[in-house]
Design brief:
about 30% helix; six-stranded parallel sheet; about 130 residues; 6 strands; about 20% strand; 4 helices; single chain; globular; alpha/beta
């Protein structure tokens, strides 16, 4: 199975390094405000997920899952769950942490819970 790359909306300061972490054939999912990184990353999403409260739906002609604004999971956690449903077990998370320490810890716990079966979970930390 190919790797699933999930792009969130946290700051990315070194796009060249992040692009070096990507591989041909990655299944790339952009989550709502992660779309702010689309042009700089120069990749084509395979899936877009979000409630579009922080970025307009770009209507790019790729599969898009529009979520309600009021929901239990963040857009990123929903994207992880959706990728697991599709059989992915190798993940690279980009731009998914960095908001606040409390939010980062909560997201990390939620993702670890969802990905406990995954053998390959990596974050592409910026250098």
């Amino acid at each position: 199975m190919k790797r699933c790359v999930i792009v969130g909306g946290a700051d990315i300061n070194n796009y060249e390094y992040i692009k070096s972490c990507l591989r041909n054939g990655d299944f790339i999912v952009f989550c709502d405000s992660g779309l702010n990184h689309l042009e700089s990353l120069q990749v084509n999403p395979r899936l877009i997920v979000g409630d579009f409260d922080s970025h307009d739906n770009p209507h790019l002609g790729v599969e898009t899952i529009v979520l309600p604004c009021e929901k239990d999971d963040t857009d990123t956690v929903f994207a992880v769950k959706e990728a697991i449903k599709r059989g992915f077990d190798d993940f690279l998370l980009i731009g998914v942490v960095g908001a606040s320490r409390q939010k980062e810890r909560l997201l990390s716990r939620l993702l670890k819970k969802e990905l406990k079966q995954s053998q390959n979970l990596r974050r592409c930390n910026q250098r």
